[in-house]
């Protein structure tokens, strides 16, 4: 143990193994796809000019499974596995199911309804196997928690998981974006889980989200070198939906299983920090998803219809380059997610000040093209790489 009840060293090993296996497996996966001609063909709605392999999720899943297997062998982390808790078994099977759906979609392009059914089945599988909400904290009620029965908890967890899967899938429209957001969001929830492990002396309920997030951060970190602009391989639906499911799993485990009444009622923000962190971590993809659905339905289109009005498209229109657009989005997600988690670590006044500084920094970075002004000839419009697996 690296601290009281906090297995930092072991979680660090899990993260590094996930990153290394994912990084090493991505090359062979890409080579196999290129040799067999399994590459994403250029379609009318795509703007990338080179056919690109789109099964990076297979390498990411390989890294995840290897990391979870290792974690199960480490004595300091065994409290996060069966028979103590069924959550890790549930998330592995849920991840396997969603990757199977994603691989089929990447290779044969499933219809929207068929893919949604597959997502629901994976979410229901994970929730019924033991990863579902059991406790919901009620703010301003003296630390009251609501107990959910199995049906209520599983239903809520399944809906939440499907929402997260589609949110990440929708935002996966530019090189490096989904992997970076998954890494940042997972990192924020990991920090919260480590805080709970420290404060509660190694609470069993905090082990699964910490392990899941360590593996999630690792697979995203390992895939990014292959996927950052210019991308040599796309993660495809198999990767984007895997990130969404793992983020949902960590969120459910962190906010649904940790009894926040143990912290007292003096600081409402600190008490609500698991929910706030979860909301902050998924704020960007969910906002993008909601805006896309409203926009398309208001125009009389299907909510699944592709367009080029996502947040990253708007940043490109402001004058940001491809890479800078991704970095700006990283900044916003980092500012909100880590600003929120800071309330569970620092005094409220310091946390508020830190959150404001982070948000101002992100706002200034966003406004840089406008602040610079349009002087001289305009630079060429950067190429937007919309992933052929799912550009929505």
UniProtKB/TrEMBL annotation:
Its EC number is 2.7.8.-. It is found in: Cell membrane. It is an enzyme of class 2 (transferase). InterPro entries: Glycosyl_transferase_4. CDD domains: GT_WecA_like (cd06853). The keyword Metal-binding does not apply. Pfam families: Glycos_transf_4 (PF00953). It is a multi-pass membrane protein. The chain crosses the membrane at residues 12-33, 54-71, 91-108, 120-140, 152-171, 178-198, 204-224, 236-256, 268-294, 327-346, 352-371. Keywords: Cell membrane, Membrane, Transferase, Transmembrane, Transmembrane helix. The keyword Membrane applies. GO terms for molecular function: transferase activity. This is MraY family glycosyltransferase. It comes from Corynebacterium breve. The lineage of its organism: Bacteria, Bacillati, Actinomycetota, Actinomycetes, Mycobacteriales.
